[in-house]
């Protein structure tokens, strides 16, 4: 009888733990409630602390970050509007390729802009920060059982 009770508790516990976690998803966290200016300001200040930027570099990086934040907010709003209206459906492989290609083109342009503003040492540090951040995100997604 004790074994049956232990087995029942164990199965219930495993069933409860195995439930899908529906916590804050990517893009729906507290940052998406911020304006593009707020997001750009925070990112610029973090880079200023990490890279020791001059005032001139800060203004240029702020402009770059503001453009990037506005672009991301616009894309997010567009997708949200499609989802709410019911028009959104899973993209085909060709559409996914086009999205990924456009995203990579945008990243290359962003990287070139940053390369023009930063010194060589700052640029190398910035690249290390970006690669480290990307790897952390990949690890977190794998830990949560999402793709990656």
Automatic annotation (TrEMBL):
Q: Which domain of life is it from?
A: Bacteria
Keyword tags: Signal
- Please report the organism this UniProt entry assigns to the protein: Flagellimonas pacifica
Q: Does the keyword Signal apply?
A: yes
Where are the stretches annotated Disordered?
125-148
Residues annotated as signal peptide: 1-18
Q: What ranges does the record list as Basic residues composition bias?
A: 127-139
Mind telling me what this protein is named?
Answer: DUF4890 domain-containing protein
